[in-house]
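User: I'm new to structure prediction. If I give you an amino acid sequence, what do you actually give back? Let's try with this one:
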Amino acid sequence: KHLLHELLLQSPRAMNWHLGRRLLPAVPTAAAAAAALAGFKGWAHCLEHEVSFSKDEFRRFPVLEVREAGPGTNIIKCGLPSSNHVMGMTISAYVLVGGERGGEDGSGAYTPISTDDQPGYFELLVKGYPTGVVSKYLCSLKPGDSLEVKGPFTKLPYLPNMKSKIGMIAGGSGITPMLQVIKEVLKNPQDNTQLTLIFGNQTPADILIRVELDQLAVKSNGQLKVMYVVDRNASNDRSVGHVGYMTQNMLKDTLPPPSPDTLVLLCGPPGMVNALAGPKKFRKDDPWRKGHPFFGQGGVNGILQELGYAEPMVYKF
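Assistant: Good question. You get back a string of structure tokens that encode the predicted 3D arrangement of the chain. For your 317 residues, that looks like this:
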């Protein structure tokens, strides 16, 4: 509590530095303090509840419910130790979920689609891939089974109003980290970040958690805009914004333009990520120090580079 108070009394740049956010621009002090205070309520929420996850070890949780979320995709609801327990997630972060073999060698990285605002349980969106050993195992689970979780591990820390505009490009189950950030922004009335989501799938029937995304967009009063992109639209779904590959013109017309106050988040199949921004890779001349969120990102290439985006305007999950 005292640490949070001290951070609020400091300048935005000092506060960003303490939270490992030296890449973020400063914002007016009053606005920063108000937004940060609203955002820190999430931290206080964790202090009021017991944290269930651990970075140091895998912990086992019972499967309460499994429901279909799309072709070959399940939402797995797991119970926490009590109704007073929360996951203890940071934004944005992932957890390791153990497969049939267990341990880190037999685990996969997943982002829960529930938040710490829902104590007593957590939910995972899992798409079973033919060659995915862990995902196939998780999709075989039934109520009464259990799974192991270790984490959370923070990827790109989020602070309210860290950027004025955030664009998101997701493909398939790559929607999960985007949903995490969207919920974090929209639950904070002091966070004025404008959000644009481009969500790609094969067909309209493959669009995951579509009802929830549509509801979030409606309730946001324009703060969140969602565009669905599909490879094929045989059903002539009128809510689909684009059919075919994500083109340079489509992205230019939809995403917030390149700017130091713009961030584009990217998560999806390797082919999509490589075409849009190039692969993640380690560079001998990496300009970011080891441990920095942008270390190992591999720079910005592909279509986004052609549109004028550069580091640190683009982050690949």
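You can read the tokens as a compact description of the fold. Here is one thing that stands out. The first helix runs from residue 2 to 9.
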